[in-house]
Amino acid sequence: MRSSTLPTVLLTFLVGLSFALEQDRSISIFAWPQASSSPQTLATIAYNSTAAKVSQYTAPRLSDSDSIVRIGFHHRDGADEGGYSAIATSASNLAKKYKTLLLHLNSEGEVYHVGFRARDASPSGASEDSNGVAAEKDGLNVEVVKIQPGPVVHLNRPVVVSRDGAKPGEAVEPEKTFFQKYWWALVLFLVLQIVVTGGGGDGK
To answer: Which N-terminal residues, if any, form the signal peptide (predicted)?
Structure first.
């Protein structure tokens, strides 16, 4: 009994330890006005695979001519090293009271895309990370969006049909009766009979 319980307890401990030892990563988010030659640091975000929080936030300096601002980040490694991924938003959105930055994570927990939304009305409820610490700072909130698995195509799977030739869950249309199939022919026959009978009476 004891020998069978020990592996289970050990596995549970190791899984819990792996989550506890997961270190927060850090990423710098930039605001790049369309008319500007270089970006400005908008925020520094600490995040892991389940939560994120704003470590530092600096409101961007925008001129009256700045109508579009690109919000994004620099790639750190891989084929896109030195590249910049961003989304474009109206400069007026950065002046709104409640702003939310979305970090889209890939299967390895790395940021591959960002999103941004803003509103003047207060959102319902304050966002918190897994430790109960508020993820919002100076009007900027941050959320983690995990990648969702796409549909899986099953190849070489036989199609199962019922005795009526229908797939499971597919409604089977009831077979029509003789009258339902040929009612129009019966109506046409009756009309012809009336016409012929009426024509014969006039001849007499």
So the answer is: 1-20
- The residues facing 6 across adjacent strands are none
Strands 98-105 and 25-33: unpaired
DSSP state of 139: T
pTM exceeding 0.85: no
Nearest CA among 175, 150, 155 for reference residue 165: 175
Please name the residue ranges forming H helices in the chain: 2-20, 178-203
Considering only CA atoms, which of 100, 74, 101 is closest in space to residue 86?
74
* Cα distance between residue 21 and residue 2, in whole Å: 28
Residue 185: φ, ψ to 5°: -70, -40
State the CB neighbour count (10 A cutoff) for residue 29. 24
Task: Spell 39-77 as b/e; 16+ CB within 10 A means b.
Answer: beebbebbbbbebbbbbebeebebeeebeebbbbbbbee
Determine how β-strand 140-146 pairs with β-strand 98-105.
parallel
Q: For residue range 35-59, what is the model confidence (pLDDT) as tens digits?
A: 888 899 999 999 998 899 999 999 9
